Amino acid sequence: MIYLFAGDDAKNKLSSYEKFLKKEAKGRDVFFVSRNNWDPVQIESLYSGSSLFSSSSVIVFQSILEHEEGREFILEKLSNLADSDSDFIFIESKLPKSILDAFKKAKGEVNIFELPKEKKEKFDNFKVANAFGNKDKLNTWIYFRQAIEAGVALEELVGILFWKVKDMILKGSLSRFKEEELKTFAARLSYLLPQARKAGVDAESALEQFLLEAF
């Protein structure tokens, strides 16, 4: 049988592996294989049952799939390992899907341990729009920079600004603006990004300049 323990969450991966090994290794010979003692001939003897020690052993491979020689040999012999009376345990870092699929195809038990991805709180685009609507130049720029750092697309920012300007015009809530100013803003926003890209100008810089020069 084949068992794979892989992923970048080293703590949980090793903890799970150690518990599993303690259970599987009772009364059996255990061999540890790393790059330092890699020997294809010995590996073949272990899965073929011709080991001098025991017909059923536990063989632990440590970071073998990171290296081309070991990876190619193991992937080619997975079906042999799966049919063996011995158990083959692999401890690896993060692996590509192609290798994981190969282990699954060989009916291996695949255990993946991944660190949780850092969750970034979604930026509230209305902060930019509301600061703009209040004619607050400083906070408009601050929120714009925060939005960019949070990965908000330029199209989203232009869209929310365009909506804010049109909403102010329709509701007649001009605040500190004149209606003509808002109409000019709406017109400029509608073609700002396409025009910048067509002219070969950095679109982010073009939008930032528009916000800084609007008032």
TL;DR?
The chain has helices spanning 10-24, 40-48, 68-83, 97-105, 126-133, 137-149, 154-171, 179-198, 203-213; strands at residues 2-6, 29-33, 57-62, 87-92, 109-112. The protein is of the alpha/beta class and 215 residues long.
Keywords:
single chain, 215 residues, alpha/beta, Rossmann fold, five-stranded parallel sheet, rod-shaped
Would you give an account of this structure?
The mean pLDDT is 89. Helix content is 55%, strand content 12%. Strands 2-3-4-1-5 form a 5-stranded parallel β-sheet, with helices on both faces. The longest helix is centred in the C-terminal third of the chain and has 20 residues, at 179-198. With 215 residues, the protein is α/β, with parallel strands linked by helices. It is rod-shaped. The chain has 2 domains: 2-112, 3-Layer(aba) Sandwich (Rossmann fold); 126-213. The chain has helices spanning 10-24, 40-48, 68-83, 97-105, 126-133, 137-149, 154-171, 179-198, 203-213; strands spanning 2-6, 29-33, 57-62, 87-92, 109-112. Helix 5 packs antiparallel against helix 6 (137-149) and helix 7 (154-171) packs antiparallel against helix 8.
Topology:
Layout: E1 2-6, H1 10-24, E2 29-33, H2 40-48, E3 57-62, H3 68-83, E4 87-92, H4 97-105, E5 109-112, H5 126-133, H6 137-149, H7 154-171, H8 179-198, H9 203-213
Parallel strand pairs: 1-4, 1-5, 2-3, 3-4
Please give the number of β-strands.
5
Distance between the termini: 70 Å
Named at the architecture level, the CATH assignment of the largest domain is: 3-Layer(aba) Sandwich
Are there runs of 5+ residues with pLDDT below 50, and where?
none
What can be said about the biggest beta sheet? 5 strands, parallel
Strand content: 5-15%
